[in-house]
Amino acid sequence: MKTKEEIVRNWLPRYTGEKLENFGKYILLTNFTKYVELFAESNKVEITGINKPMPCATANGITIINFGIGSANAATIMDLLSAVKPKAVLFLGKCGGLKKKNEVGDLILPIAAVRGEGTSDDYMHKSVPALPAFNLQKAVSTSIRDFKRDYWTGTVYTTNRRVWEFDEYFKDHLRKTRSMAIDMETATIFIVGFQNEIPSGALLLVSDQPMISSGIKTEKSDGEVTEKYIEDHLNIGINALKMLKNSGLTVKHLYFDYNEDMDGI
Q: pLDDT by residue (tens digit) across 204-257?
C-alpha cells in the first residue's frame, strides 16, 4: 500500500469489522458502547465488529461508530472515514461544563473549538481555527428544537490531558480561554474532517462540572447521566442526519465549494 487511499480503504474495515460498501453516507461518532447498543436496538440491526477497536451499526443510510476516547482516536477515525467519503459526520460526545450556568444534562452546540490537544497540529497549522460545518450545526439546532429542548452555544476547549481537575493553574488557563466546555475530541474532529473534506459537526452533552470538586465525574454520576440523558442525545443526532439525508441538502464547507469552483476556472 503506497497511497493514503489504499491505506484507509484497507484499515477502515480492519478497525470496524464492516465492509466499505455497507457504510452509510451519514455518520454518527460516539465514545461509548451504549450509544451503539441503543441505535442497533431501536433499528433492529446487529452491531458489527464487537471485538474490533471501533464497533459500529448501520441502518437507513446512517452508521454509528464507537471510536474510543481521545484526540488520537478521533484523528484516526476521521482519516479512515475518508475511504467512504461521508456527506456528514456528527460527533455525539460528553463534555465538562466550564461555566456556572452549565448544568449536567445540558446540550452544547459548539461554534468552534480551541485546539489545546496538539493532535490537530499534525494536520494543519496552529493558526487555522477548528470550526464545524455550518449547515450541519444548523440541522442539529433544528433537531434540538424539534425535541423541545434548548442548548448552549460557544467554544469548546479540546485537550489531550485526561486528569487535570486538581490543577488550579490549568483551570485558570481554561477560564482565560472563555470556553463553554471541555472535551478531548471536538477540535480534532473539526480539523481532520476539514483536511479530509468531510463536513463535520458536534453536539455535546454536559456530563460533569469539573471546575468544582463536587462536580467532578464519578462512576455513579456518569451512570446517572447515561440513564437520564443519552437516549435524547442520540435521537437528536439521528433526527438531524435524517433531515439532511431526506432533504438532499449539502453540508459542505464553503472552502470545499470554493476549491470545486476554482477547478472550473
A: 999 999 999 888 889 999 889 999 999 999 999 999 999 999 875 555 543 434
The span from the CA of 33 to the CA of 24, in Å, is 19
Residue 107, strand partner residues: 205
98: cell is 466550564
- Whether residue 35 contacts residue 92, with contact meaning beta carbons closer than 8 Å, is answered with yes
CA distance 93 to 207: 9
Q: Which residue has the cell 453536539?
A: 203
Could you tell me the residue ranges of all domains in the chain? 4-250
Query: Quick check: 206 and 95 in contact, CB under 8 A?
Result: yes
Given the C-alpha cell 490543577, which residue does it identify? 167
Model pLDDT for residues 31-58, shown as the tens digit of each residue:
999 999 999 999 999 999 999 999 999 9
Q: Which residues pair with residue 208 across a beta bridge?
A: 96
Q: Say if domain 4-250 classifies as CATH 3.40.50.620.
A: no
pTM of the entire structure?
Answer: 0.92
